[in-house]
Amino acid sequence: MFKMIISLSAIVLSLTAFAASAAQLPEHLMDKDNPGEPYWCQGDDINSSVCSLTAVSDDHKFALIQDWPGTACADNNFGVIDLVHQTGINVPYDGGDCQGDVKAGFVRGVKDNGLYVKIVRGSKTLLMNKVKTGY
Prior knowledge:
alpha+beta; 5-stranded mixed beta sheet; 3-stranded antiparallel beta sheet; 8 strands; 15% helix; 33% strand; signal
């Protein structure tokens, strides 16, 4: 029974990894910071060297993306894509100190149950940015 549970867990993890690698964003996303302009990560960009998918919110309305780190700085920049309104906006984060150890994910607020992007380095929270709907 224990071996079957481990095998099933491995299959689920494999399918999750495959689904994330084969994911695609909406083909045309507007940049919320620059209305009328296309967002820097859209369509199948997440399958190229432009950006990668970091997470999808628990309600499946938002995607968290990150750029690929550059040679000068190993930290990523992050963006939130509103999948309902097909817009993207950058997370107001300066990229850290270029150590390459910055991570981001979606979390729910304890007090308001709101959706936040949490950026961390190890166990230290660097930013909690509330995701706004309808932008």
